[in-house]
Amino acid sequence: MEDEDDGAALVAEKGRKGVESRGLLLLGLLLQYAEAVTMDCLTDARDILPEISELASLFD
Fold this sequence. Notes:
The protein is mainly α. The chain contains two helices and no strands.
């Protein structure tokens, strides 16, 4: 029984770290997008949008 609890805790921890990692990647892309728009590099900004959309999607 204790092994099952440890396994569930490990899965939950990995899930949390995955969400945090995904959030940090999204934040980095949003900052890159904002910088590209600010510098009027609209082609670069446009190229970043699909990645932002993919990471922001609720559906994997």
